[in-house]
């Protein structure tokens, strides 16, 4: 029964963690500590391995790169223990962290082949140790893989490697940086600069989305741009049309249909498109004027379900000296008017005659529709009541 529980525990450990990795690390450190002599920083250390079924690629022919990167961990721990870096790191509180690895494959390492990994410290600077690892098959002495790794020494001081290596055998002979490592460092520097630039751009975009409704401004620019490129100018009495699609950003809390506020938001895009297509926007800019929404009423006749395309039709119904009255309709592709909107646009620093000058269809003012008359009466009654309260 005890054996059964031991087997269950052993299997469970294999499931939740890479047990072989920890066992191999412990074995490597113990054998290097008790069975091998200490060596200098400029010496080469060697560990041995066998390419098993756990190491091979999907074709069961050779070792995969991920296992080689795993193997150099053991080679590095072995080196640290033999030269005294591991003991020194514990004393000084300096930790080692893999910064980068370069792998060069000369020939594949076959499955079931015995091999050795030689490790040499080829260079160090204030913050990093640079190792070269050669993977050599024992049967023919061929170098199958070359791996170069950069280990960051992380501590409380800036010159951490100086503290880490001080007094160790060979630490007085600081090697010159090999040319291939110099090229590698330059390559990583270029890559880091690109990533930093990308991070800056991503951060700016993220902040923009946090502090502004970026999609609102993009949609306005897109709507006006498409209108200018692909649609002809129209008369003030014509209807203009833009198209939309109810996405997950538009729906209500039940994720079923467009929420009430998004209807009003869509009206802005349709109105700006109408202004640009008729020439109103150009005349407003010429006199530094502005059209400000003064009132609106919207009647929701039927919901626009999620993932439903629709169009917004915009038409100028009537205007006075300082106001314009616009009708807008939300129409789905089945022809049903889902919502209808009346809005009053107050003209700032410009009058209607100046605004509509030289615009086709503005020669004669249309009669005020009956629904607008009643709506204006309702607004006036509401305004009078508010004035009494004030």
Automatic annotation (TrEMBL):
The chain crosses the membrane at residues 6-23, 200-218. It comes from the Eukaryota. Keywords: Membrane, Transmembrane, Transmembrane helix. InterPro entries: HotDog_dom_sf, THEM6_lcsJ_thioesterase. PANTHER family: PROTEIN THEM6 (PTHR12475:SF4), PTHR12475. Belongs to the THEM6 family. This is Protein THEM6. The lineage of its organism: Eukaryota, Metazoa, Ecdysozoa, Arthropoda, Hexapoda.
């Amino acid at each position: 029964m005890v054996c059964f529980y031991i087997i269950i525990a052993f299997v469970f450990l294999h499931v939740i963690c890479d047990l072989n990795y920890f066992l191999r690390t412990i074995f490597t450190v113990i054998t290097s500590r008790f069975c091998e002599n200490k060596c200098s920083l400029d010496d080469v250390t060697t560990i041995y391995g066998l390419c098993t079924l756990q190491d091979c690629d999907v074709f069961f022919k050779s070792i995969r790169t991920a296992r080689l990167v795993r193997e150099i961990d053991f080679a590095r721990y072995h080196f640290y223990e033999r030269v005294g870096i591991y003991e020194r790191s514990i004393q000084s509180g300096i930790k080692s962290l893999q910064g980068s690895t370069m792998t060069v494959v000369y020939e594949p390492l076959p499955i079931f082949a015995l091999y050795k990994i030689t490790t040499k410290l080829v260079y160090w600077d204030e913050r990093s140790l640079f190792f070269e690892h050669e993977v050599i098959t024992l049967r023919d002495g061929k170098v199958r893989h070359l791996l170069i790794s950069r280990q960051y020494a992380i501590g409380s001081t800036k010159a951490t490697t100086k503290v880490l290596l001080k007094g160790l055998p060979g630490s007085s002979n600081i090697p010159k940086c090999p040319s291939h490592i110099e090229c590698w460092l330059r390559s990583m520097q270029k890559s880091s600069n690109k990533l930093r630039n990308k991070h800056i751009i991503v951060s700016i975009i993220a902040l923009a989305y946090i502090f502004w409704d970026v999609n609102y401004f993009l949609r306005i620019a897109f709507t006006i741009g498409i209108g200018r490129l692909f649609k002809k100018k129209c008369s003030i009495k014509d209807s203009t049309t833009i198209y939309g699609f109810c996405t997950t950003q538009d729906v209500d809390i039940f994720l079923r249909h467009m929420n009430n506020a998004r209807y009003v938001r869509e009206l802005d895009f349709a109105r700006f498109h109408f202004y640009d297509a008729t020439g109103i926007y150009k005349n407003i800019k010429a006199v530094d004027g502005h059209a400000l929404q003064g009132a609106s009423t919207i009647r929701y006749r039927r919901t626009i379900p999620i993932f439903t395309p629709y169009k917004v039709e915009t038409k100028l119904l009537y205007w006075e000296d300082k106001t314009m009255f616009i009708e807008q309709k939300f129409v789905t592709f089945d022809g049903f008017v889902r919502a209808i909107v009346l809005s009053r646009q107050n003209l700032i620093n410009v009058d209607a005659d100046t605004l509509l000058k030289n615009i086709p269809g503005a020669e004669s003012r249309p009669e005020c529709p009956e629904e607008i008359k009643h709506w204006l009466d309702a607004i006036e009654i509401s305004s009078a009541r508010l004035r009494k309260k004030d």
